[in-house]
Amino acid sequence: CKEQTRVVDDNGFNPVWEETLSFTLHMAEVALVRFLVWDHDPIGRDFIGQRTVAFSSLMPGYRHVYLEGLTEASIFVHVSVHDVYGKVSSL
Asked: Could you tell me which residue ranges the C2 domain spans (predicted)?
């Protein structure tokens, strides 16, 4: 699955999206979540940074996702998981 937020104009240092992206996972134990950050301006798009995280290691709640290769650069996200099916419970 792939989703993209809208572009935030004229706020490169502290953009706020306030968007919700939802996904349906069929094999959560092997799923990866990749965050890509691009600078979008009239000249074109420039790659800023990225981070790939195993879905199983994403804890619910507000989190800073630090971008690889950049000192102190992160995006602030809220993670929530709903309707987990297929869980085997021990009796």
From this structure: 1-69
